[in-house]
Design brief:
globular, three-stranded antiparallel β-sheet, 2 helices, four-stranded mixed β-sheet, binds zinc ion, 121 residues
């Protein structure tokens, strides 16, 4: 019997970044929205992160820089155990294969668009 939607949401809110990226890697790649249209389009459904930084010169002031968007890169299973928690999504870089800006909780990751290994900051 599958877990309730509330249980799934509660788990996703609390699980580690490693678990979240592994779940998203498995769940999103095979969603109907990511099914290719033969001879026309290929799609990749992935988790993304938007961030903007307060660049105000003094504490208590706010001057928000523009938003930056990145695809969440998956943990590279050749380098880490599947349950490796890593850090929050604070590793950043760009895929040499497809040019996608990516972030991850691990330094050795896989691009969610083309699958290429991406070594992050
Ligand atoms: Zn890529």
């Amino acid at each position: 019997m599958p877990a309730s939607k509330a249980d799934v949401v509660a788990f996703l809110k609390e699980c580690s970044g490693g678990e979240l990226s592994d779940i998203m890697r498995q769940a999103l790649a095979n969603r109907p929205e990511a099914a290719p249209e033969p001879d026309a389009f290929e799609y990749r459904l992935f988790l993304g992160l938007a961030v903007h930084e307060n660049i105000a010169p003094a504490a208590g002031q706010f001057d928000w820089a523009p938003w930056r968007l990145a695809a969440v890169a998956y943990l590279n299973p050749d380098s880490y155990r599947q349950d490796f928690s890593g850090e929050p999504f604070c590793q950043w870089g760009q895929c040499d294969g497809c040019g996608t800006k990516v972030c991850s909780h691990v330094k050795d990751s896989l691009c969610p668009v083309c699958g290429r290994q991406v070594l992050l900051t």
